Amino acid sequence: MTPADAYARFDAMREALNELRDADAVQRLWDRDASLWSDDSEVQAAIADRLGWFDVAGGQPEWSGRLREFADGVEADGIDRVVLAGMGGSSLAPDVFSDVFADQHATRLVVLDSTHPDAVREILPDDGLATTLVVVSSKSGTTAETRAFALRAERQVPSTRHLAAITDPGSNLAEEAGARGWRAVFTNPADIGGRYSALSLFGMVPAALIGVDIDAVWRSGAQMLTACGPTHEGIDNPALTLAAFMGGHARAGRDKLTILTSPALDTFADWLEQLIAESTGKQGTGIVPVVREPVAAPTVYGDDRAFVVVEHRADPVPGIDELQEAGFPVLRITVDDRHDIGGEFVRWEAATALAGGLLGIDPFDQPNVAESKQNTNEVLDEVAAGTTLPDPEDGDVDELLASVETGDYLSIQAYLAPDPKIADGITELRMIVRDNLKVATTAGWGPRFLHSTGQLHKGGPNSVVVLQLVDVPDEDVEIPDRDHGFATLIRAQALGDLRSLRSHDRRVVQRRVAGPEDIVRLIGDARALLHKPMSGQDSI
Questions:
Q1: What is the pLDDT of residues 107-126, one digit of tens each?
Q2: N or C, fewer C-beta in 10 Å, the chain?
Q3: pTM
C-alpha cells in the first residue's frame, strides 16, 4: 500500500499527518527547533546537542578519502577479518552493512556485542588473531561491555596495529587508544546519539573496511534528506508519511509496529528496533517494534497491529496482500538498490523524530537505560564484597503465559550465547504464543537488547510480559585487570535487569536453560498449555 493509499484509507494516519503539517513540524525539525518536543529549556538544550545526524547524512568532505586510505592500508597488511566490538548504536549499523554487503569484499566483519564467555571466546580466541583487526566502538568510551572487550582484545592481538577505536572527542577510549599506540582513533561529532549514528563514522568506518561503496551510501542519504525536507509537506515526504503512519496508529491503539522485511534486510529490522524502541518508549507510552516475527495469516493478529513492509524489489515479502485485504494498516517501502540503505537510515531517523513530536516525548534521550547498568554495578560490587551470585530462578512459565492479556506483548530475553538452534527454538516459541494468544512477540539477546529495547521495557507501556532465559556458563573468560570474568558479568547483567523490571512492576519470569534441549521443553510446555496442535517442528 502506497503512502497515498494509506493516507486515504486510514483516519489515524490522516489526522496525524494533518497535525504535523499544521504544526509546521518538518520545517521545525529542519530548523532544529527543540520546542517541537519540549517546552522545558533544559530538555531543549539537551536535544539541541543530539541533532548532528543531519550533518552526516551525506558524509563529511574529509571522511571519504581518509576511510578509503585506512581500509586500503588494513588490506595491504593482510588483514582479512574485522571484529567490531560495541553495543547498541555502535554495533547495529555495522551489522547491517555486514549483512547487506556480505559478498562485497574478502574481508569479513564480525560483530561482538555479547558478554557471554562462549561468544567472547569464539570471536576473540586465545590465538588466531594474526589477520584480525579489532575495532572498539563506543561513544562515551565508558560502556562496561565495550571496555571489557577492549581489555580482552589488547591481551589477545599480536600488536596494537591490530586495534582501532571509534569514539567521541576527549573520551577515555580516545585518550587510552592514542596513548597506547593503536592503529587509528576515529573521533565522531559529539552531537550525534548512538542510535542516530549509522551514517557517521560509527557505521561507515566498518562499512569501508569491508569494501562498501561508502560514497554511494552517503549519496543515497543526502538524496533522502532532501526528499524529507520542508519543500515537501505532504504525502510526497517520505519521513512525514512514515511518522504519521507510526505515530498516528500508535495513538489509536495500534502500537505494535510490525516490521516485515525481505531476508536480505533482516538486520536492518534489528537496527530499526533499537531506533524506534529507545526513541519512543518512555513516559508510559511508546511504539513497540516487532521484528523477525514470521508473517502469518491475518487471523493471528490483534487490533493492536500496524505493519510496515521493507522489501527489496527483487525479493518481495509474501502474505502482504492478505493483510491489506483483512483491513490491517500496511505501509510498503521498496528498496531498489542495496546502497539505498543510506536513504532508509535517514527516512527512519527523521520519521522517528517526528513521531516523537506526535507522542509528546523527547526521542533523543533514554532515561531508563542507566537503571540496569546501575543494578549490574551493584551486583558486581556485591560479588567483590564476597557475596555469591544466586542460582538462576526456575520461574513458572505457565503462570507467566496465563497472565498475558489482549494488547500485551511477550518479550523473550535470552542471556545466552547467540546460537542458531536456540534462535530457531525461540522463534518457534514466539509463533506458538502469537498464534494462540494473538499477541505480539519480540526477542533479544542479552545484554545486547539492553542498549536497544531495554528502554521500552522499563519506560514504555506496561504491556510487556518478560521471559528471561539464563544459563550458568561452564567455562569463564577472564577480563584483564578486573576481579571478575565475563561469566560473572553476564549473570550480573541478567540479575540487574531482572531487578529493574520488577522495580517497574513488570511481569517477568527468569528461567534457567542449559541448551537447545531446554528450549524444546519450553516449546512443548507452551504448546500443551495453549492447546496448539503439533506442528512437526519440535526438533531444533
A1: 999 999 999 999 999 999 99
A2: C
A3: 0.95
